[in-house]
Amino acid sequence: MRLDALVAWASKRLAGAGSPTPRLDAEVLLCHVLGVERTWLYTWGDRPATSYARARFEALVAARAAGHPVAYLTGVREFWGLALATSRHTLIPRPDTETLVEVLLELASEPSGRLLDLGTGTGAIALAFASERPGWEALGVDRVPEAVALAESNAGRLGIANARFLHSDWFTALAEERFALVAANPPYIDAKDPHLAQGDVRFEPSSALVAAEAGLADLRHLAERGMAHLSAGGWLVLEHGHDQAAAVRRLLEAYGYVAIASRRDLGGQERVTFG
Ligand code: GLN
To answer: What is the pTM of this model?
Structure first.
């Protein structure tokens, strides 16, 4: 069978299985099997698939049809133009979180400084920021040791030398250290949210997604403890759910933050609040 016919077959199968992006999924999975870029596939789609490639592709399509996230099947996800290794121990980086990176870059007006990324996972936020601000030092922490190891290997593979990673449950390993920027994409979904029963989140660690107090418990903790880790004039920058901006603003006010503002993501939802 030709490669383009395989893509067409898989797109149909994945659409039937409820993938929101069936054709993209099919192309990404086939490129993963072949070790090529998507542009290669568009040029050489009339080539026949080897039976080995076809068998591997069909196995991946079956796993995707069963709901497994593409980023776990390929082991990689692009974030801020960086190819990040992903694993089942970490949240899959989302485009929404690029909004948080944009806010951090705007706030990083000095030529140098330190950024703290709490619950770094793959290292996405720390690495994207560090890649754009070579004069700064980014520190990513996570309470999951596998995440720390993954983030470190992402930094090494991408050659990003100004990002370091540390095992820490939020601020616990940080003593008195202060930062110009403290950022987090913490868990913020309510355990009863029906969103948790659909799509990729079913396969991601719930410790990266779900928080008590209707999703606000970790955001509250970060707002409460974050102030002591900010240098003078520093900023706390938090990602949150699309309907949590007002609640997060109230939390920041309650803990003494000023100049509070929110930013919308590409989908037009208020996604990041800072003060
Ligand atoms: N934005 C993600 C989602 O809704 C959740 C990320 C998070 O909880 N930090 O799938």
So the answer is: 0.95
